[in-house]
Design brief:
six-stranded mixed beta sheet; binds octanoyl-coenzyme A; 16% strand; alpha/beta
Length: 268
């Protein structure tokens, strides 16, 4: 994967790390960052659309350069925006968050520092949030006369429940890494940023040993069933279960188990 003007990319084995790299502005999501994220996530998606069982990427880590993960949308850029331009800006980044959710491989947000506003929203679009002990999370939009525009009003209640989400959205109060962990926003905390990146990559290495087809299918199912009534969610799950039975990975996984061997998944 190429580097982009505002992003660094680092592929180690099948794990791709994307680093938002505008440390002087605490990695704020300018239109250029959003465009680069759009192209980079698009390139990953394209690399994974082959049906030949090749999975050049098995997991993605998103992190930030310097002391912030992402300190929000670019406040400077928003000063002269018209309401219609703001709508287009919000919609464009929302599409990026949906593209992350639609990737067939897991994405871990490795939150190394401030994840505020659009930064918290970018993290919440990922499959899992891991945090360094110095990370903090919040939706401070109301302190600027703004509201979340990249999914915060929708995804934050899904992560932490209505009561805490509303408190955070109405007050702009920040959560420490530990509070975010206790609230269910963060899956794991690491002492240092190096440990954080190792932890994110180790989890994705573990994922890479499983059936790629099954991981893609379960990611899709979890995404599709969020917020649905149980009965409707269960129907989608049964369809996914059926689909697993059409894959070569299922044949290999169950065969290898019974033969007491390690599976060699075809990836289809
Ligand atoms: N946008 C632009 N520049 C920023 C941003 C930002 N969000 N955050 C920090 N910076 C810049 C600062 O202006 C400063 O630049 P300079 O050195 O040129 O003065 C540099 O980064 C360093 O920042 P600080 O000096 O403020 O660093 P501190 O360590 O003192 O403070 C904080 C760190 C607490 C993170 C502080 O920078 C801060 O509060 N930042 C803003 C956080 C925030 O409010 N984020 C929410 C933005 S709104 C949003 O995300 C809405 C999303 C949806 C919008 C869709 C609608 C179109």
């Amino acid at each position: 994967f190429p580097a982009y003007p505002t992003l660094l990319t680092d592929a180690r084995g099948s794990i791709l790390t994307i680093t938002v790299n505008r440390p002087d502005a605490l990695n704020a999501l300018s239109s250029k960052v959003i465009e680069d994220l759009e192209h980079c996530i698009g390139a990953v998606s394209e690399a994974l659309t082959n049906d030949d069982g090749a999975w050049p990427v098995r997991g993605v880590v998103i992190t930030g350069a310097g002391k912030a993960f992402v300190a929000g949308a670019d406040i400077r850029e928003m000063t002269d925006m018209t309401p219609d331009e703001a709508h287009a800006y919000s919609s464009r980044m929302q599409q990026v968050t949906l593209a992350i959710e639609q990737l067939p491989v897991p994405v871990v947000a490795a939150v190394n520092g401030f994840a505020l506003g659009g930064g918290c929203e970018l993290a919440m679009a990922c499959d899992m949030i891991y945090a360094a002990s110095t990370a903090s999370f919040g939706q401070p939009e109301v302190s600027l006369g703004l509201v979340p525009g990249f999914g915060g009003s929708v995804r934050l209640p899904q992560y932490v429940g209505q009561a805490l989400a509303r408190e955070l959205l109405f007050t702009g109060r920040r959560l420490t890494a530990e509070e975010a962990h206790n609230a269910g926003l963060v899956a794991a905390i690491f002492e240092t940023v190096d440990d954080l990146l190792d932890g994110a990559r180790n989890t994705l290495e573990l994922v890479a040993r499983q059936s790629p087809a099954a991981v893609a299918l379960v990611k899709k199912t979890v995404g599709q069933t969020q917020g649905l009534p149980t009965r409707d969610g269960l129907k989608i799950e049964a369809d996914a279960f059926r689909q697993a039975f059409t894959t070569a990975d299922k044949a290999e996984g169950t065969r290898a188990f019974l033969a007491k061997e390690r599976p060699s998944f075809p990836g289809r």
